[in-house]
Each structure stands twice: as structure tokens, then as C-alpha cells.
Amino acid sequence: MESESAPTVPSAGSRALDVVRTHLRGALATTMLVAGIAVFGWVVHRHYPIPKWLFWRYAGYWLGTLAVGIASYGIGHVVLERVFRLRLPLLEHAVFSFVLGIFGFETTMCLVGAAQGYRKPVFYALPLVLLAAVALPLRRHVAHVRKVLARTAPTRPPLGWSTLATVFGVLGLGMVYFLVLTPHNVQFDARWKHMAIAENWVAHGGLYPASEGWVFSARPHFTSYLYTWAFLAPGRLFDKMVLSAHLEFLIFLVTTIVGIPALVRRLVPKADPRWVWAARFVFPGVFLYDSSLSGGADHAGAMYAIPIALCLFRVLRDLDPRFVVLLGLFIGGAGITKETIVMMLGVAPLLLVGGKIVVELVQSLRGKSTPELRRRALFTPLYLAAAGLFATSPLWLKNFIFYGDPVYPVFSKYLHAHPLTDQALYRFKYGYAEGLLWKPSRDLKGLLTTLQALFSWSFVPNDWPKFHRTVPVIGSLFTLLLACLPFLKNTKRIWILVAWIHVGIFAWYSVHHQDRYLQGLMPLMAAVTVAIALSLWRSFGPSARGALGLLVGLQIIWGGDVYFIQTHGFVKTPLKSTIDLLSGGFEKKYDDRFDIQDGWQDVGNATPKGSRLLLHIFLSHHFHLGTNRETILDMYLFQYGVEYGAAKTPEGVRQMVKGLGATHVFMQPDKKSDGMNSIAGDILFWDFVRYLRDRKNVNEGVLGAVPDTPIETPFRDTVAVLSCSVKAPPNGLYKLSDLRTLPYGPDNRRFGKPLRSANTKEEAAGLLPMAEFVVVEDTCYDAKNLPADLSRSYDMLVERREWSGFRAMDIFRRKPHLPALPVPPTP
Predict the structure, then answer these.
(1) Does the predicted model carry a pTM greater than 0.85?
(2) Among residues 532, 437, 427, 434, which one has the least CA distance to residue 489?
(3) Nearest Cα residue to 349 out of 480, 462, 497
(4) Using CA atoms, how far apart are residues 763 and 189, in angstroms rounded to an integer?
(5) Closest by Cα among 43, 23, 10, 471 to 284
(6) What are phi and psi of 610, to 5 degrees?
(7) What is the pLDDT of residues 456-507, one digit of tens each?
(8) Are the C-beta atoms of 474 and 520 separated by less than 8 Å?
(9) What is the DSSP-derived secondary structure letter of residue 639?
(10) Beta-carbon contacts of residue 700 (< 8 Å; ≥ 6 apart)
(11) In this structure, what are the phi and psi dihedrals at residue 399, rounded to the nearest 5 degrees?
């Protein structure tokens, strides 16, 4: 039998040769791959130039968004760890860190603006500086998180059927993000408030007071500081708007996939965080304008809901001062984000904490409480107040410095607020606070309607009828599952949230009940909904589980088409806009696909850099984002420093406009008034418009430069009124100053005494020879039946639309070559 031969040992030279061959093969393979890249790039570049691919733009948006997000998370992490010295479960630590950090980033942008530091380099420098500052603590934190996840990995059960929920949630996130891709998705309010404020600040180079006393410059708008960072970015308006939308999406993303699971695990122990967040999308209102993510502040404010809830549970347990301070900071952060947010998220927690304090103090008097708890109960209100004042100081301190009123113009009656016209407080109360807010009557009927809304809010839409009419789309599972809550055990925390949510709904309905504002409560509703559903699943058998599955399925199926309802205020459906954007490269619309707010960009481009635009536009036209200029909005309902009716002459208006700092005036539409101001105000403004220099037509309106020299043309202020109803001044001949009456409120019939009275419109027509201006109630005459002297001697000055207590009116001005007769002395 032959023995086996020993294996051959390769020589050193043979091994070296094998290494060379391996490297050579790798180099050749790499060369072929690079050649493939070059060939493919060469081929596709001819069809769609690689530098023009949308990928690079959106990669940039995500790079910037993640830089802000990671820097913010790092700020919050450092504050939690080093200031509050807290160690929390991972999910709770993550949501606390992120929300604290976003608040910190916005505060930093506020401070930069106060120092007049809004310059292009800040866009790059601020995130980089913050990232560098938190890099080491974040590195240690990431290492800790990896260890925890590795340690718990073996104990995680397979997802199983829960995979369906995860897929549902991922699909929902994808659907939301698809809308974010296009700036045409941005809502109306963002285009004249949230993002427009950011654009204004950047155009100025920092924070500045609104010379016209624009109320929204003094209201909570903290999200605008986040958008201001985006508006410092280089590039087009398209880029700034979409980057802002990505920042909003990041907040929504973290609130949904981190915040909701963190809260649910406090409600239902061992709830699986990998899928419970998907409950956010059983509320399909989030897919539909204007409750969707569209550049507003509602979803940014909603990020405070879960941190407030998690703090509240701990404060109610033992009044831990660290969580008391955090609770005050989070409620304060919600307060300077949006008033409706803090009404829904702040009132109930403060009431509950107040109740806890009372209980502890009573227990202390009975000798049933510890000295430490008694001390905490006494100091908790101080901690809450101090934290809240600190968190809200960027708003009230700015307002006090700029306007002399921390909540301008609310306390203007008691403080030396500025600017403030003699009609300002009347306009604020009756034109804005009582005229525009959706709220029930302040009587028993209104109270009963509000109480009914606690159940019906999801079944009866509270939205503009043109959006989705009377079809309920917001989602009703939260309300429907509450009926099962009494049959479940260990639900104390769920009941606390249910009570809180209903206090929030009560406040929302009482003050301004538009559905989109409820997005601030949605994270809490989603958490409670999935907590009840999960508890039902664990507690009962197949019949209950089957019924639960059918109910959830019915809600999902019912809401399945909401995403496709075409209700958007600008483009009907942003889905089509995103599709057009993505197909723009194929169609070689390399520049056209980035068009957005073109008309307003044209207005800005028609003025020299550094100009300041006064915009005299209808409320429905106020989406003025894109001018890249400082703007002044003179709309009577929303500003309290401009009253044209008090100017007395066109020269007075010129001085007023110059005093505001305006260099140009833009009117849209031309020779039309929204009817929200006084008749005297309309006459004086539109008479002043005749003296604007370098007038040009742009964006369906007229733009002109404010004259630097005084208007010396003689001005006569006699006005004839031809009316036929109580919704216009009585017939007669008036001094202009007697027609400063506003069309709303209890004084809308208080006009000055006429120079000459008339009993009928025909008698009033006899006063035309003495009138410089004529006001004709629109329904009194048709175009072919106007008084002969009116048609012969006057030109149309402005058409005034109907508003509140005034009907539509046409205002005429006497032709310059036909002077009016003097008014004879009163016998």
C-alpha cells in the first residue's frame, strides 16, 4: 500500500507572485468599474447633465438638515447630562435632547439676529461651531447607545405581524415626505408669516421692529428662527423653502418615530417601539392641506407634547425640581412657538401640577408628608415661573424693547406701546380678536356647543368648506376607543392624558377652532390610541381582537383616499407638483422647474437692493414671500401703527409712509380696496398713489417709488355720499375727517355730522358740484344710471369691496380741470 504524499508547501517566491496577481486582478477590476462609471456617466450626461440632477440639491438639503439636527441633539444631550444630571431611558433621552436642542438652536439664531448677524457665513458657521462644541460628548453618547442596543438585541422578539404596522408607518412617512419635496406644498400662512418673517429678517440682516406695528411680528413665531437659518442659504428661493420644509419634516420624524414610542412605553410597559409609532398615520388629516406638513408652526409646536407629558408624569410622582424646570422650559417653548399650541399643551399640565401642590401641602398640614415634599411643593411654582419666563424671554423681551409692550398690543392701554394709532385698540378688539377668530358665542349656547365638540371634533370638520367640505378626515380612532378605556386595568397615566387632551380640545374650540391647530395634540392622541389598542389586544380574546382589527382597518380604509383629495390652496395637489418637478429633468426644464412665487420675486427685482416695500394688498394676496426685501404690510386688521384716515392730506400720507421707512409702494390689485379700513383712509391712500414716481405694472399690480419732495398740490376734503341702506354713511356732504368710521364693531354707524344733509340719494346727487370726492353705495345705481354730473366730472379712484358692516362702494375723484364749488356757509 502506497503512502500518501505530503502537501506541497509553496515557496516564498510563489506566495509573492500570488499576492501580485491578486492585486493586479483587483486593479483591473477597479479599472473596469471606473470605466463603467465613465461610460455610464458619459451616456446619461448627454441626456440629462449630471450637475443638474436633483439628487445633489436634495442631498444638500439633507446634509444641512442633519447638521442642524445632530448639533441640536448634541446641545440637548449636554444640557440634560451636565446641567440637569439626568439619566433617562434611551428613547426619552433622545426626545428630550432633540427638543431641548432645537429650542437651543432657535434661541441661538435669535441672539445672532439681535446682534444684527444674519449674514451668509452664519449658514455654514453656526452648525459647524455647534457640532464642534458637542462632538466629544456625542461620541461618548453614541458609544453608550451602541452598547445598550447590543446588550438588548438578543431579547428583542421578532416583529411578526407587527411588521405590517411598521410597513404602514414607513409608507405614511414616505407619503408625507413626497409632498415636502416641492415648495408648492408650502401653505398660505407660511408665505406671509412663518417664512416671510425669516426672509424679512435676512433682508434686514437681523431682528428689527415692524414700523407699521404688524401684530404677527410680536406674536409667537419661534419656528421662524429655524427657517431664518435656511433663508441664509445660498441659492434660489426654491432652495430656501425646501430646506425649511426639510427642517419641519425632521421635527415631525423625530416626534413620530422617537417621541411616540417613548410615551407609549410609559403607558403600556414593554410596548415595542419598532412599530407603535405607526399609529400617527391612523389620523389621515396629516396628509391633507392644511393640516399637512407645509411650512407652518403646528407640527413644530407638536414636538413639545411628548416631552411635556413625560415630565408631567415625573412631576406628579414626586415634584422632582429637575423635571419641574424642564416642564416649565417645554411649556415656555410651546408658548413662543404658537399660542394655540400652548393653550392645548400647557393649560392641563399646569392645572394638574397645581392640584399636586395643593394635595402635598394639605398632606403636610396633616403630618402625612415628608419635609422634602413640602419644600418641593412650596418651590415648584417658583421653578415653573422662572423656567417659563426664561424660555419665553426671546419673545416678551424683544417685544418690550421694540414695542414697549411684552405682548403687543394687548397691554398697550396700560403701557406706552408704540406704534399705536388712535384707532388701534378698537381695530385689534373688533377687527381682529372678535372679527376673525373662529369661536363659539360667550353664553350658555356657546358652552354647550364647546362641550359637544369634545366628542364631535373628529366627526364634524372645522375647516374652510372649500377644502374637504363636510367630510371628516382628521381621524376618529382616539374618540371611538375611549369607550373601551373603563374596561382596562392599570390605565392611570392614560386617563391623565385623556383628560389633558380634552382640556386642550376645549381650549382649542373656545378660542380658534380650525382643524390644523389640533396637530399640536396629535402625538398625544396617537400615543393614547395605540396604548388603548395594545392594552385591548393583550387583555381580551379573539372576539375583541377581531372587532379591534375591523375598527382600525375601517379607519385606515376610510382615510385611504385623503392623500389624493385636491384641496391645496395654491396647486390643488402638491403630488402633481412633485411629479412635475421630478420629470422636469427629462423634459429639460432645468430652470423652469425651480420657479416659485415668481410674481413676488418680480416685485422685489423691480426695486433697487436695500429698498423697503410697503405692500397694500388684499388678505387673499398676502402670500408675499419672495421679494427678498424688507416689507411693510398696511392691512388694517393686522397692524396698529398706520391709519391713513388720520393723515388729512396726500402729503400727510407721504410723510406717514416715509416715516415707516418705505421707499416703494406696491398695490395689488390696482384701484381696489378690501374694505377693511375707513372710507377716509381709502380716499387719502389712493389719492396719494397718484403722486408715486416711476410707476410700473408688475405681478398684476402697480409699483411706484415714494416721492422725496413734498406734495404741494392743494387738497380739498369735501366728500359727497350717495347711499340707499344703513350699510353706508347717510346721504350728505361730509368733511373727509368725518368718514374715519371703521366697518366693524359697535361704532360702525358713528359718522361725523355732515356739512349738508340729504334725505335721498337723488338729493345727495345735487351736492356733487361742491364735492371733491364722491362715495356711491354699489347697490344704489347700475353703471348706466349714474348721475350725469358724476359721469361727466369725476374719475374712478377706487372700488371698495363689501366688508362686515359696510356694503361695496365706488369712490370717485373730481377731474383736476373741473374744480368744485366752494361750500357756502351754513345758514
Answers:
(1) yes
(2) 532
(3) 497
(4) 47
(5) 471
(6) 90, -5
(7) 999 998 887 777 778 889 999 999 999 999 999 999 999 999 999 999 999 9
(8) no
(9) B
(10) 599, 668, 669
(11) -65, -40
